[in-house]
């Protein structure tokens, strides 16, 4: 129903165990209004509760992934309001989603758009993708993790260069710098992202969630503690059916079936 679709900020399409979420606010270049944030998070939390969903793909349109936080919504706010609302803290719930999230980025991923992609677990880019943190041009700084996650991804030198100048970075540079996992042609981007998502969703749900948690922990923990955390998680998987099925399937020379976990 197109009349219904016109009022929806996030379109959801489910194929197998993969939920494709398309940002649908193209008249504002998919700017992240509070309304859009609430709708996106509510839909993802609802899908996460469904054991038949194993991976998310988040995308925009061919021209723009997302042009950032909603400048029109922010412009009129005072410092007191920003602090009282703890503006942007709602995005922590997006970052906390346990099911893997793949960002499929074509066109602009600016400011909060780049930060949205960085809150996903994997970023795939079409060759038209453009990444930037242009907040400095608005007299502010990134507010949804840009100074932290971009620095973790591309290192201090490039993060300083990008955030202080606000310049654009191409898909090729983003891949070379370590922000983007793989670059595809714009025409095949979504297909490739859905293919990877399908592959992830066929693995064991628990081992995927724990692998992701262990990688995320590497951003927070000193190496020695990170290694202990990884080993304990590894040990704990030996109490789960996934390990029994995965290893039995290898010995029996058949494909593992994790669908009952
Ligand atoms: N917010 C609100 N509306 C937007 C945004 C945005 N981020 N980006 C575009 N729009 C709107 C435009 O205002 C315009 O609306 P209208 O038709 O009503 O005039 C419509 O979308 C189309 O945009 P343009 O006419 O500008 O399209 P162009 O093709 O000429 O330009 C660009 C495309 C280059 C993407 C341009 O729109 C642009 O530069 N957008 C802003 C990009 C930006 O600066 N993003 C960062 C935003 S700030 C942020 O994300 C984090 C802030 C952290 C603050 C921390 C506070 C605690």
UniProtKB/TrEMBL annotation:
Name of protein: enoyl-CoA hydratase
Keywords of this entry: Fatty acid metabolism, Lipid metabolism, Lyase
Catalytic activity reported: a (3S)-3-hydroxyacyl-CoA = a (2E)-enoyl-CoA + H2O; a 4-saturated-(3S)-3-hydroxyacyl-CoA = a (3E)-enoyl-CoA + H2O
Gene Ontology MF, one: enoyl-CoA hydratase activity
Enzyme's top EC category: lyase
E.C. number(s) listed in UniProt: 4.2.1.17
UniProt-listed GO biological process terms: fatty acid beta-oxidation
Lineage: superkingdom: Bacteria
Family under the similarity heading: Belongs to the enoyl-CoA hydratase/isomerase family.
CDD domains reported in the protein's UniProt record: crotonase-like
Task performed by this protein: Could possibly oxidize fatty acids using specific components.
Database matches in Gene3D superfamilies: 2-enoyl-CoA Hydratase, Chain A, domain 1, Lyase 2-enoyl-coa Hydratase, Chain A, domain 2
